[in-house]
Write a structure and sequence with these properties.
Layout lengths: L10 H6 L19 H6 L2 H4 L2 H18 L17
Length: 84
């Protein structure tokens, strides 16, 4: 809930909620306000590499959860890459 409410300690939160005299632009790209939404999905600096890494990591975790260990069928122990 805190992230959805923009209540994480971002520069935007400090500027708009705590009324500090801080520049609210994101420190990596200085193109937009440092909000959680911007950091998670819109920063062009992070888009170059970090979003893809995060996506791949989540996919790998999902596959491990659905198949036990990557490369093995769930509950059979058979390697998916073996000739069947």
């Amino acid at each position: 809930m805190t992230a959805q409410d923009q209540a994480l300690q971002t520069k935007y939160y400090a500027t708009k909620t705590l009324n500090t005299e801080t520049d609210s632009k994101y420190r990596l790209c200085h193109q937009s306000d440092e909000t959680t939404d911007f950091i998670i999905s819109a920063c062009p600096v992070l888009a170059k590499e970090q979003y893809t890494k995060r996506h791949d990591r989540v996919c790998a975790q999902h596959m491990q959860g659905n198949m036990g260990i990557i490369g093995q069928k769930k509950n059979t122990g058979m390697n998916m890459y073996q000739n069947q």
